[in-house]
Fold this sequence. Notes:
This protein is an alpha/beta fold. The chain has helices at about 5-10, 25-35, 50-55, 70-75, 95-100; strands at about 10-15, 40-45, 60-65, 80-85, 105-110. The chain contains five helices and five strands.
Amino acid sequence: MVSSHEARTAGILLFMGKLDPLKGVRPLLKACRAVPDVKLVLAGRVDEQFAAELRTLLPHNARYVGQKIGRTAATSGRRDVDGAPSLCYENQPFSILEAFACGKPVIARTLEG
């Protein structure tokens, strides 16, 4: 049975990977703004140019935790789902494989042809 507190909490979404526009970071942040109950954690490498833009794009319910080496370092806290919103074709993303290995579902974007 789900408690009333759990029903009101949307959860924690983890994005782990290169923080790059091609990886779908901008649409992910836009979606995050639309669902303020979701807490977004971003972990990964970001280049200087996009880092400056990222600071202005982060909504109040998102935080960037920096580059983490290995999933364990980035996910020591609780999370409910992983996100893979890439705007390009991905072959076999390690972030999805690692999420599945941890028993976590993944929300991914599909590309229309």
